[in-house]
Structures are given as structure tokens and as C-alpha cells.
Amino acid sequence: MFFLTVTTVSIVALINLAASIDSQIPLAEDGTPRIPLLGFGTWNLNRSNASEAVSAAIQAGYRHIDGAAGYANQDVVGKGIADGLKKTGLNRSDIWVTSKLRNEHHSPAKVSEDLETTLSDFGLEHLDLYLMHWPVAKSNGKSYIEYLDTWYAMEKLLKAGKTRHIGVSNFSPAQLNDLIAHSDTKPAVHQFETHPYLQQREWLHWHQQHGIHVTAYSPLGNLNPAYDSLSPPLLVKTDAVQSIAEKRGCTPAQVILKWGISRGTSVIPKASKLNHIRENYRTIECEILDKDRAQINNLEKVYVKRFNNPSEMWGVPLYEGLEDS
Predict the structure, then answer these.
(1) Rounded distance between C-alpha atoms, residue 79 and residue 195, angstroms
(2) Peptide bond into 232 cis (omega under 30)
(3) Which of 9, 72, 103, 224 could form a disulfide with 138 if both were Cys (CB 3.0 to 4.6 A apart)?
(4) Per residue in 205-224, pLDDT tens?
């Protein structure tokens, strides 16, 4: 278990953070990344309609697109970005684009190559955020923990202006503390799985105290088809979420996303159907109360579940020191 003594985040601060999404205003102006809190995820977005989905997302109002080299769809996502910008009349500077370094390119010599390929796929000159997707390198079919030399190479890309920010994803407390202690650049963002079944409150508070923004992937929990949807029950089908949705005139997905935003995290739900893309964006219109958030918080008293854990498949330890480890 990972425990820290933390200062309680004020309700006013959380309300202000949640309110910033109403016009997709960037997160903050205190040195932390100016990242819109409602993003559009592209993991498992099928190549056959990825361009249309991303374009539709930008047209619907999303200003934060999350991708990764490992998703094998960045070229079609890039076409969607271009089409969305054209149809809305927006400029590149109006949107935030994130990508991630693949495990196979952790070698310092390959880090720059990976980013150049990503920029070419996206049709962009720079990223807003470049993440180390995992603290795991892969070479000759074998995976192993490696991140410091990779991070040093990423720092050079930051200085070269190829990306405005660099960050990490899926790090454990020990790994993140080690990286910060042995480098000149603190990660601007840490992206990891968090939702009502995996709230990670102490870990989230640690990031808030250290000025590292958190992006929540899989914010709808096991609604992602890649996950086991049988145990625990689908988040959107739980009595608590269904009841809150009915009372507040929101959809269950909107309730869960607004809960995530109210914690100060950015959320990146994926959708391929136009009605779901628009529905998720209308999270900005959904209002939930403190008692609703408390009810959702209680879901973790029944279930604590991480859905994305390839540690056994890769043969490496992941998430050590966190609440579900």
C-alpha cells in the first residue's frame, strides 16, 4: 500500500478546476501544463474510422487529443486532426496534442527517431506533450525496467522545441521519485489509470503537492472493450452512478467523467460513434454535487480493480507500492 500524509485539497480549488472545462480553458497558469481537462482518447480507435472520429471530436469541441505510437493509428489520427482544424477554422495552437514513446524505442538513439515519426504521422511540427508510455524498455523480444537514460534523451527533445512538455505514464511511486531525484526536468504530466474502481487518492494527492498534473486514462473503467466487463460490474451500470445520472439529468458516462474532472485530473475517454463523441463532450453541462461525489467514492469500498496490468505478460514488476499491488 502507498501512503502519504497529504494536505486536503480545498473544495473551492476543485470547483474552480472543474469549472474551467466549461469553455475548455487550459488548466492553469502557474507553471503546470495548460492542458484542457476534457480530452479525446484514441487507444483502440479502429483505423477504419479514426480520422472521422478525431475530426468529429474537434468539431464537437474537444481541444485535447491523446495518442501514442503504440496505438498503431497515429497517421489516420493525424488526418483527423487536420480535417477537424480545417472544418472548424482553428489553428494548431488552439489544440493540445499528446503522444507517447513506444517501449521498443527506449534506447536514447531511438527516442528522437520515435518522435520524428510521430510528428510526421500527425502532420505536426511539435507536440504539446510527449510521454514515456511505460517505465519499460523492450529489446530482442525481452522487456525490462529502464527509464533514466530514456528520460535524458527526452529532455533533449524538450530543449530542441520538438515538444512543449515531457512526462511519464504508468510509473510507480519509487520509479517517479527516482526519476525526479536523478534528472533536471520534473515530469509535467503523469498519465495513469484511475476511475471510481481505482481512485488512488494518496497517489493523486502526491502529484498535486508536487505540481505534476495527472491525466486519467480509462476514466470510464471497464467500459473499454479491451477489459473484462464482468467483474466488477460495468461502472456505468452501477446503482450509484445510475441514480446520480437520473437525478442530475446526465448520462452515466457524463457523471463518471465529471467525477474525474472534479478531482483535478484531465480525462481522455475514447468513442468511435458520433453520438457518443458528442455525449461525452456534453460532460461540460453535467453538474454533480459533493454528496454525489461521496457516493461515487464509496464504490471503491466494494471493488478495487486495475484493468490494465501487463506485468505478467511482460515479465516485469509494475505499479509496486500502489493500493492494488
Answers:
(1) 30
(2) yes
(3) 103
(4) 999 999 999 999 999 999 87
